[in-house]
Amino acid sequence: FFFFKQKTAYEISACLVGSEMCIRDRYQRRVHGDFVNYILAEIDKGNYFGQAIHFMMVDEVQDLTHATLLLLRRITEQDVFFSGDTAQNIAKGVGFRFCDLKSLFQIQRFSGQIYQKEETHTKQLTINFRSHGRILDLANSVISLLEILFPKTIDRLKKEKSFIDGPKPVILSSHDLELLFYVLMGNNDSAKVRQEKKEQAIEFGCNQVILVRTQEEKKQLPSFLKHALCLTIYEAKGLEFDDVILFNFFKTSFSIIRNSIVIEEIEIDETEFGKKYVQFESSSQQDNLLNIDVDEDVKVWKSQSKVGGVYKYKNVKKNPKSTFNAFYQSELCTELKELYTAITRPKNRLIIFEQNELKLEAMIDYWSKLGLVDKISFTEAEIKQIKEEGYIKSEKEQANKVEGFLCETSKNEWLKQGIKMYKNQYFEQALLCFEKAEATEYCKKTKAYLLAENTEQKYQSIESKLSFIKTKLKNKRSHKLSAIDDSVLAIESQCLKSFAEAGDLFYELGSELLAARCYFSAHQYDKAYELFLKNNSESECGEAALILGDLKLASEHFMKAKDYVRAIQAIKSCGNNEQILNNLYACKDLIPQEEYLNSVQIYLQKEINDLAEQTELTNN
User: Fold this and answer.
1) Which residue, 374, 391, 496, 503, could crosslink 187 as a Cys pair with Cβ 3.0–4.6 Å?
2) Are the CB atoms for 202 and 224 separated by under 8 Å?
3) Average pLDDT value for residue range 380-406
4) DSSP output for 350-394
5) pLDDT, tens digit, 9 for 90 and up, residues 127-186
6) Hey, how many other C-beta atoms are within 10 angstroms of the C-beta on 491?
7) Nearest by Cα to 420 from 245, 226, 235
8) Distances (CA, A) of 258 to 265, 316, 359, 366
9) Computed over its alpha carbons, how large is the radius of gyration of the chain?
10) How far apart, in whole angstroms, are the C-alpha atoms of residue 133 and residue 590?
């Protein structure tokens, strides 16, 4: 049984050609689509030598391209189980719906081959055991907007529900960041202590997180939030936390929503209600249930209002007078899906903080009409008083809406959260956790990974420019390098030094294979080759030997790694016809018959010609 996450595609490729870092240098960092198609082509040629996989579980399937889905099906011998949520489809360049899977696996054509028709089965899970009902109500309200405004981008499914109750999500909108600080702090400490915490940073728990939209926004957080875990919404996918602060999410105005939908109140007679609905109790009654599908045989009514034998609920539908055009509002669709993803991360409390109230206004209006959120607001006089006194008075209603938000966490809990972040390769957040847990060894290894990751990102940012500059240097007729060119070369030089430094850190930690890969990226191929050889990484030895110019040695390593295509490519370049023929014979059963015969004929003729020349020279 095999569990697939997105990054595993590179591990699959290692069964074909070697490590990810070697692949990167060899194929000039192919875009993901080309990379997957390359793997599929290699599988068709019989060049896949990975471990047999009988069953595969694929999570977050909504972020995978059709080519990737086909690849996973091709390397799985029996069944594949796909799971995901199309409302969380926020990966760039990917459009996915579960209904598309059926057509994808009907008849597959690839490289001239036709694969048999496969039957697919779909099952929806509707009970959420993680988030409580108030969170799900807010999330379902976003789903309703997607279904109404962008129906072709999402599967229309039954809404999720929960038997657990909890606090309503809270909205705080203010241009003044200090207000967020005072709301979070409450009235637990003295004014002096609160002032110190504002300057030094609030201590959050390990299961509390701040969500932002981009990596750049992480750097713009106010100082009092610097000690909190902070992830982008994309990074937070698949993770869960007790409490979440969604920070400055609304970058564009959602005002168009106001005229595109209507909220209607529907009444159901008590007798009809008893026939079609199943009621259950919750700790506090709500007034709304969003989008009950009237065609369902049996429905669950989580909460309701009853007046004179009539049950009432609110329903969201498209405004018939709306001129909304989904094609011109694609950015709004992406933002709604990101918003849904963020809302569904907390298990307990959600605080939405926004500095620009105008951009949030339409959503506040929408959610308030449905009774889904609590809004914290203060007058200018109240804000002035809060700043003067250093806290929000406990008798204020707003003070109780996020009471007890801050919590202490043990070192062991920080360690567990750090390991979770580390496994997801969020090294910056993992390092924060390990430092709070005082886990020295984990800190060292995480710093090495973080250095390698940051250097890789910096190198990728100049890669296209660097390729152009090196082409210019090879061309003798080109003009001399500009100041910008010099700065790019300086960044490359710094990146190579940083890769080497990361290699040294991994070597000190005893991770020799990781050290070798960093040295490879630092262009220290001799050092990388020695460590690859020591760790019996034959394919990577071949890559290093190839760059060092020892083609015969590279071919030998590729043969040992059973990478016969690379072995033949390497030996062909060295001009040793006898060695080429020996290699061809060794892998004759692994090469297409026609290609094998043609290659043998070519190099056998070359070998005969060479022998004839030698005989002629000897006779003379």
Assistant:
1) 391
2) yes
3) 67
4) EEEEES-HHHHHHHHHHHHHTT--EEE---HHHHHHHHHHTS--T
5) 888 889 899 989 988 988 888 888 888 888 788 888 888 889 999 888 888 888 888 876
6) 16
7) 235
8) 17, 12, 12, 8
9) 30
10) 57
**Chain centroid, CA 161 distance in Å:** 26
What token pair was written down for 423?
């496994």
Question: Given the structure tokens 């409490």, which residue do they identify?
Answer: 243
Q: Pick the range with the lowest mean pLDDT from 63-67, 332-336, 400-404.
A: 400-404
Nearest Cα neighbor of 243 from 139, 165, 371, 352 is: 352
Phi and psi at residue 95, in whole multiples of 5°? -120, 120
E strand or H helix at 596: helix 593-619
| Residue 192 Cα distances to 137, 188, 389, 403, 562, angstroms | 40, 12, 10, 20, 69
Greatest extent of the chain over all pairs of C-alpha atoms, in Å: 119
Contacts of 605 (CB under 8 A, 6+ apart): none
* Size of the chain in residues: 620
Q: ∠556-11-70 over CA atoms, to 5°?
A: 115
Only one residue has tokens 């029996």, namely: 78
**Residue 397 contacts by C-beta under 8 Å, 6 or more apart in sequence?**
none
Mapped onto helix, strand or coil, the DSSP state of residue 15 is coil
Q: In DSSP terms, which residues pair with 553 in a beta bridge?
A: none
Residues 539, 517 contacting (CB under 8 angstroms): no
The CA distance from 342 to 211, in Å, is 7
CA 100 – CA 53 distance, rounded (Å): 24
Range with the poorest average pLDDT among 68-77, 228-237, 250-259, 569-578:
569-578
Selected residue with higher pLDDT from 15 and 47: 47
Question: pLDDT tens-digit profile of 396-425?
Answer: 555 566 666 777 789 999 999 999 999 888
Q: What is the pTM of this model?
A: 0.74
What residue has token string 């309200």? Answer: 141
Paired sense of beta strands 299-301 and 374-376, if any: unpaired
Q: Which residues contact 288 (CB under 8 A, 6 or more apart)?
A: 137, 303, 313, 314, 370, 371, 372
Q: Angle at Cα 190 formed by Cα 401 and Cα 176, nearest 5°? A: 55
187, two tokens: 């009235």
In the chain, % of residues over pLDDT 70: 74
Distance CA 536, CA 528 (A): 12
Which residue carries 């539908």 as its tokens?
Answer: 317
